[in-house]
Amino acid sequence: MFRTDGLAGDERAIEGLPIRLVVALVVGVAGLSVMLNMLSGLSGLGVTELDVRPTPEVTSPGAQAVTVRVVGSDGRAVSNATVVARGDTARIDGVATARTNGSGGATLELAPSLPPNRATGTLRFEVKPPAGGSYADRRENTAVLVVRE
Length: 149
What we know:
The chain contains 1 helix and 9 strands. It is of the alpha+beta class.
């Protein structure tokens, strides 16, 4: 009935298979951990997302100075970044730009206005990261709320 001269009659074949899989899994996990350890040591692979922290966050229409601080995701100040202020649901004439100083701060002279029949609006900010850094501005930044008094 069963042949004993080949693999068809060898009942041990199934017993050795799980051990080989376990050994392959252990070797694969060890190799993966070594590669990930090597990659985590490279600082050039990480990109830090930037955000703008305006002061004041809530303001009224009219000419005024708005101070912004550009920070990374870790909360540290970013110098030499260019901040661009644009109208969103509130309006400003054109765009306003400023470059951050050594402590990550910049002052923008803005004169926001609100459309007729609108009690609130927002101004939005974009950041052009400093050259040569590992920074990016992909997400929406904190906006300034403009409220008619």
